[in-house]
Amino acid sequence: MPQDTLKLPELALVVLIGSTGAGKSTFARRLFRPTEIVSSDTCRGLVADDENSLDATNDAFDLLHYWVSKRLKRGRLTVVDATNVRAEDRKGLVALARQHHCLPVAVVLDVPDAVAAERNRQRPDRQGLKPHVIANHRRLLRQSLRSLKAEGFRQVVHLRGVEEVDAVQTIRRDPLYSNRQAETGPFDIIGDIHGCYRELCELLGKLGYEVLPEEVLDARDLGVRVVRSTPPPGPLPSGRGGAQRIHSIQDLSSEEQANVAEEGASVSPSPGGEGAGGWGNRKVVFLGDLVDRGPASPQVLRLVMSMVRDGLALCVPGNHDIKLLRHLNGKNVSLTHGLAETVAQLAGETPAFKEQVRLFLDGLVSHYVLDGGRLVVTHAGMPEAMQGRGSGAVRSFALFGETTGEIDEFGLPVRYAWAADYRGRATVVYGHTPVPEPEWLNNTIDIDTGCVFGGRLTALRYPERALVTVPAHEVYCEPSRPLRSAKLQLGDAPDEPAALTKLKLGATAQQQHDDLLDIRDVTGKQLINTRLLNTVTIREENAVAALEVMSRFALNPKWLLYLPPTMSPTETSELPDLLEHPAEAFAYYQRQGVARVVCEEKHMGSRVVVVLGKDEAAIQRRLGVVGEGLGKCYTRTGRNFFTDETLEAAFLARLRDALTAAGFWEKFATDWVCLDAELLPWSAKAQELVKNQYAAVAAAAGAALPQAEAALAQAAARGLDGAAALLARTSARRDAATHYADAYRRYCWPVQSLDDLKLAPFHLLATEGHTYFDRDHAWHMETLRALSLADPRLLRATPYRVVDLTSLTEVEAAIEWWTDLTHGGGEGMVVKPYDFIPTTGRSLVQPALKCRGREYLRIIYGPDYLLPGNLERLRQRNIKGKRNLALREFSLGVEGLERFVAGQPLRLVHQCVFGVLALESEPIDPRL
């Protein structure tokens, strides 16, 4: 009976084979998406404007192969609609499938010549087709049927006649064995065990599982039972701040050891749990190399097999496991590298158990893609291009990794450092190569810590990114390569510069890798994915401008965790003599569905970001920066605020001491902090700007306008036509110049020492393992006010008030407060939504709006901005571009800092920081 459903792998290259007129195009359109079909006729039309142009065949198939390659690279099922009756035509397609680790599938549409001929006669574009063409196609097709498997097609579907072709009504896309994306965890991922059963039981105990024996009733039983006892003690990190590393290497207590069964035990979950995604749903993932070298490989196999059987664990194979499988399959394998010990240990087991082991190992999949594609688990590693794919090359890489072809001094192959080049989205957790300490590198981590060699057995808790380890009880096998740190000790490189040696001593693998950034990551058009705005586009010309600034003037990129966004002003006020007023800010947030706002006094200083460590060791540990001090205070463009190193060191040390006195480090369980602040006075950084621009304008006005006023007064006294009006305007300009000078002088005072500086922090941005974008602005204000009390001579608490926008009384009081501030010479205030990132159900709202006072705006728009005609013209200013810019920069700033706290590579953090700097070169009126 003809089949009505065609089963295909979800990722495959489907090659339709049939003579012209066999119905391939109709078959493809009926069963596949239009975007999945790559047709040779379509390609001819694209290159020659004629789908039947045979002289365009070579160009058409060049395009077809390019098109197919791009789809397969992106992991898209692709259908090739062409005759494909010649082996040489199919050879290139099979090669493309192999290149992209996809399964090639042949679907043969074998219809009678008469049917094909009749279909061609009904097509106006095929009237000139010669009869022998169909016969030749059919002959070649028949010859091909015998060789398709040998050519490399993993699946061949032969549809004989029109009835079988038409009977197929649906396509069932079967997930690949490695596709477990629907399983979201959480997971406990355990590295190479190598027969270390005792340590495995202890590690499971630390993870919160209980090991229990079970009665064996028949040959199928493994003598195991699986229970999860209680969640492990102590809090685990969660959320995006997952860079924190936790080690639990203390010996088990005697009470804990009493819960560990000696043999024939397993792990089982207790009923209940913490709900979806909680403790009760955790699953263990074993990374292979269960056997060899250690003392109890059969016991390890029983434990792992029982957990997999009961759905409490996943397991991928290691190279040692596959070698054991070959032995159990009767292959002639050398009993080296620990296999002899495993074979001897298995000698006492029953044939039934050994058959269970053989079937279990034979069914293991090379790797798994989990949690919606966010996690890949494998034995030896997995480049992005191979993830979720199926081929011999994929399986080989998963088992052995890749070598350079060289041999090291211990006679072992030198492995290709694939993780150093990895740029994939998924976290890759692997083992295979023993390391003394698991370290993150480009979102990958090797957790084989050499337990069998006397090291430790390690588990990674996902998504918490917490490491849990137990020490080996003894050295079960001496390693061929010493299990020691790759980091140099101070005495290892006496001829190298001290700073470089120190860096190698303290820096992580990721920090050392981040020493060199790739210019290709920041040049050209960039599309940056962010949590808040999906994609932010950086134009090529803006990237060039940012590269100039970053390469010539900015700090070491490792300091630049965050660049603050620009801030938009309010809409233009219609009130007399006012360009900005709080009523417009309040109205904006009300329209956006924000019920409460925080109004903060706006300091006239320099916007700075402060990155500070408890000590230099903290900076070295977290940032990988050596010999550059306790921290840095930098501007919105990434430049160092201080030019005097002595003053900078004193400022940072005093700020550190204030944090210490306030108990900040203990309260937030951190040894570093990132603050957003204003540093006063404005003249401390803008001295040259004040002298050359503002003071020069005031001096020129003060010198010229009184003389002009005196001359015009004489002219007016003589009754010259128009002199009185011009005199009035000149007098108004002189008064405006006086107010202008008064305005900027309020924000300037000489800086002779540290006592002349004031820091006004207003955002606590991040500490170890946390960002604080989830805290409201009132929390930030109060937290930093308490900090300011520790050193009021250096730190200034920012006055603020919370305003309920539904209360007319509170709104009016806030407007009066702003009026008093600005009449008293203050710059104005900043209005922010109460929540740092409001969730109003609408699009992202402005993170802040500045509302500047009447006199302060003289500094921005010039002394004469309030004179007749000028203010009316300024009311036409367009703030739309400024607001769009502020949102993009805000989303990039949040994204970059969250990436840093989550332990992402510097290039991904720097991408966001660089993006903010690039956006600053957009043509937006800087006065806004």
Describe the fold and architecture.
The structure is a single chain. The protein is α/β, with parallel strands linked by helices. It contains 30 helices and 35 strands. The protein has a 6-stranded mixed sheet with strand order 8-15-16-19-21-20. A 5-stranded parallel sheet has the order 3-4-2-5-6, sandwiched between helices. It has a 5-stranded mixed sheet with strand order 14-13-9-22-23. Strand 15 and strand 16 (375-378) form a beta hairpin. Residues 235-277 and 485-504 have low confidence and may be disordered.
What's a concise summary of this model?
The chain is an alpha/beta fold and 928 residues long.
Spans of 5+ residues with little confidence (pLDDT < 50)? 235-277, 485-504
Estimate the helix proportion, in percent. 25-40%
Structural class: alpha/beta
How far apart are the termini? 75 Å
Strand order of the largest sheet: 8-15-16-19-21-20
Give the SSE map.
Elements: E1 5-9, E2 12-17, H1 24-31, E3 37-39, H2 40-48, H3 57-73, E4 78-81, H4 87-99, E5 103-110, H5 113-121, H6 131-144, H7 148-151, E6 155-160, H8 161-167, E7 170-174, E8 179-180, E9 187-190, H9 197-206, E10 209-213, E11 224-228, H10 254-258, E12 265-266, E13 283-286, H11 297-309, E14 313-315, H12 319-328, H13 339-346, H14 351-362, E15 367-370, E16 375-378, H15 392-400, E17 403-407, E18 413-415, E19 427-430, E20 440-441, E21 444-446, E22 456-462, E23 466-471, H16 498-506, H17 509-513, E24 526-530, E25 534-538, H18 540-552, E26 568-569, H19 582-591, E27 596-602, E28 606-613, H20 616-623, E29 631-634, H21 645-661, H22 664-667, E30 672-680, H23 683-717, H24 723-745, E31 758-767, E32 770-771, H25 777-788, E33 800-804, H26 808-823, E34 828-833, E35 849-852, H27 856-861, H28 870-874, H29 880-901, H30 906-919
Parallel strand pairs: 1-7, 2-4, 2-5, 3-4, 5-6, 8-15, 9-13, 13-14, 16-19, 19-21, 26-35
Antiparallel strand pairs: 9-22, 10-11, 10-12, 15-16, 17-18, 20-21, 22-23, 24-25, 27-33, 27-34, 28-29, 28-30, 30-31, 31-32, 34-35
